Amino acid sequence: MRRPRLGALRYRARLEAPVCGGEEGCTAGITWEPVATLWAEIRSLSGQEVVRADGIFALGTYEVRIRFRNNITPHMRFVIGGRVFDIRAVRDMDGRRRFLTCLCEEQYA
Fold first, then answer.
1. Which residues contact 58 (CB under 8 A, 6 or more apart)?
2. At 36, phi and psi to the nearest 5?
3. CB 65 within 8 A of CB 33
4. Domain layout of the chain by residue ranges
5. What is the pLDDT of residues 45-72, one digit of tens each?
């Protein structure tokens, strides 16, 4: 595992969690509630075009590395600047509870 370089955690990221608007099955829709603001490193992994329900979209895959937190799940997302990174997987690479690497996707319209 690659340790973050000194100064690599230079992006200010807002961690958000989904909140259901209705009582049964999120009938009123999902809103996003801020959980924390933290420093992050962003590393681009790949880009591709994907076909989804109503068209073709560009999709970027990124690694977002942060200091260890035990309350992050794949249902959350990061907002960095005006960009939204949906978390797909969370892992503690060396098991020492120092840093988390989150595999994220960013969708471009």
1. 47, 48, 49, 50, 107, 108
2. -160, 160
3. no
4. 11-108
5. 998 888 877 788 888 999 999 999 999 9
Length, in residues, of the chain: 109
Strand partners, 50: 57
- 34: which 2 tokens? 């801020």
Tell me the whole-structure pTM to 2 decimals.
0.82
Tally of CB atoms within 10 A around 95: 8
Separation of alpha carbons 107 and 72, rounded Å: 21
CATH superfamily for domain 11-108: Bacteriophage SPP1 head-tail adaptor protein (2.40.10.270)
3-state DSSP call for residue 90? strand
